[in-house]
């Protein structure tokens, strides 16, 4: 670090990302509460552990190869380029940068910020499949979406050098597509093969509601996800950078915050837009769901997700209206797909994340039409076609397709779904029996050890 | 043409102000926003009135007793 200003900027940036990581931990806490709240009592502990174990499994694999993929894959697409091994040298698990190093204070916190996005992507899938998937099957999917597929899409469309940004003018500042559309598409691919929970559909195909055992827990889970989402938004920005360091077209000496593409924005802008899109989503969801608490809260989230692609540049009123439009589409689409294709999406993950992400990307193409996608020369500007192709890549090519294929393979080996009898009895049956037996045993022993009066 | 007024970032940020789309349309956007807000109240009020009327219609002495006991 040369000079006080550089030292201060580096330490500030290091601390900034560290704080976002701590905030984003709440997303995972929220997802766990949400999933357990939505599941039935007979499945609590398995539901919880299924999502808890996403944390270590995605973390270690993201350390081993996920982070390396981000830096080496920006142009790895047929007709565009290949894997840039040189760019990934500093991010292999055996690199000196991937450890305590006085010359690099940023890689650890930047890696962690991306890692928390990875947990989120995997956790979104985890919610859709509760009460009938084998944990081992879900954990394979968690590693695939968390440490391989989403980070490929981030390299392509969420990197200053990504080919989608250069060629398509792809713009997705707060990850409508690169996290939410891909995770929603992936969840759809898995549940199409996995099938619905027992009893979800009547003999004539009419869907039944499977109410959450604890709506309060579910609501608090969603509030925690909102809170973590603040950290997520901040983590998507570079907090302070000079035009000289960006080394693009920006002239002058004015420092700025930027989005992930190093194009100008501000924390103030995204604070306006986060709150206004949350509000637009909540208001629309309340009306369209006729005051249903689950959908109203989920609608707040879907509203933010819909506006996220362009929330670095939108006007707050635009963010509010875009969120509201997205939520109405998402809600209608969820029930249409459920009825038409007999899809059991236990927590509405495909809708809230997948459909909202896709709709948000396409709307962004129109509202930001012609805006520069990057501060570098020669990049395509934002446009509806590029955004639509981007949405197909995120939801379909990198989300739905691999999930469907992997799930088919798992199903063919009989390792995707739990046995029907176990599903009826509940995954926690053994734990519950042991728990009750332990209580009976210790109660009896305490009585026996208590002297008679 | 760019909706935010800039087609590239070959600019000195010291000279840049608003960069949201549709600059100059703030007042119409505000009117749309206010209509959305007021419309929400109208729709919500009507829907709540219907819901309360429906609830009132279905009240029974037995149901009230059960609700009180359930706390």
From TrEMBL, chain B:
Keywords: Membrane, Transmembrane, Transmembrane helix
Entry annotated with the keyword Membrane: yes
Top-level taxonomic group: Bacteria
TM ranges: 25-43
Protein name stated in the entry: Uncharacterized protein
């Amino acid at each position: 670090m040369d000079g006080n200003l550089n030292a201060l900027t580096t330490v500030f940036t290091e601390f900034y990302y560290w704080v976002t990581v701590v905030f984003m931990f709440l997303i995972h806490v929220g997802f766990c509460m949400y999933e357990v709240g939505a599941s039935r009592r007979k499945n609590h502990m398995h539901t919880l552990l299924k999502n808890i174990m996403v944390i270590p499994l995605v973390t270690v694999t993201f350390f081993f190869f996920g982070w390396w993929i981000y830096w080496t894959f920006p142009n790895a697409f047929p007709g565009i380029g290949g894997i840039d091994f040189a760019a990934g040298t500093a991010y292999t698990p055996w690199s000196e940068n991937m450890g305590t190093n006085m010359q690099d204070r940023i890689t650890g916190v930047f890696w962690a910020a991306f890692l928390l996005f990875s947990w989120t992507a995997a956790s979104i899938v985890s919610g859709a499949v509760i009460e009938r998937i084998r944990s081992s099957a879900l954990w394979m999917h968690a590693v695939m979406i968390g440490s391989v597929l989403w980070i490929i899409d981030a390299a392509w469309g969420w990197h200053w050098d990504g080919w989608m940004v250069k060629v398509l003018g792809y713009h997705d500042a707060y990850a409508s597509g690169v996290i939410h559309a891909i995770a929603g598409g992936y969840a759809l691919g898995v549940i199409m093969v996995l099938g619905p929970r027992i009893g979800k559909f009547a003999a004539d195909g009419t869907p039944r509601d499977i109410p959450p055992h604890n709506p309060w827990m579910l609501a608090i889970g969603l509030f925690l996800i909102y809170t973590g989402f603040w950290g997520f938004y901040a983590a998507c920005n570079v907090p302070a950078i000079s035009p000289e360091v960006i080394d693009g077209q920006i002239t002058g000496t004015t420092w700025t915050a930027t989005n992930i593409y190093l194009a100008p924005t501000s924390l103030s802008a995204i604070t306006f837009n986060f709150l206004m899109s949350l509000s637009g989503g909540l208001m629309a969801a309340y009306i369209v769901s006729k005051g249903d608490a689950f959908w109203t809260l989920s609608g707040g989230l879907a509203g933010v997700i819909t506006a996220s692609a362009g929330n670095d540049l939108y006007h707050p009123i635009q963010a509010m209206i875009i969120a509201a439009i997205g939520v109405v589409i998402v809600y209608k689409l969820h029930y249409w797909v459920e009825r038409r294709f007999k899809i059991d999406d236990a927590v509405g993950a495909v809708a809230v994340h997948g459909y909202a992400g896709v709709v948000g990307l396409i709307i962004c193409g129109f509202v930001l039409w012609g805006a520069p996608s990057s501060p570098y020369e020669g990049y395509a500007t934002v446009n509806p076609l590029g955004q639509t192709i981007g949405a197909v890549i995120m939801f379909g090519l990198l989300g739905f397709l691999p999930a469907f294929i992997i799930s088919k393979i798992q199903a063919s080996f009989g390792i995707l779904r739990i046995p029907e009898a176990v599903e009826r009895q509940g995954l926690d049956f053994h734990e519950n029996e042991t728990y009750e037996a332990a209580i009976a045993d210790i109660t009896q022993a305490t009585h026996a050890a208590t002297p008679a009066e | 043409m760019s909706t935010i007024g800039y087609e590239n970032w070959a600019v000195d940020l010291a000279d840049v102000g608003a960069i949201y789309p549709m600059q100059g349309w703030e007042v119409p956007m505000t009117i749309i926003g206010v209509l959305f807000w007021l419309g929400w109240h109208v729709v919500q009020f009507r829907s709540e009135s219907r819901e309360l009327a429906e609830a009132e219609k279905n009240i029974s002495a037995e149901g009230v007793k059960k609700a009180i006991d359930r706390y």
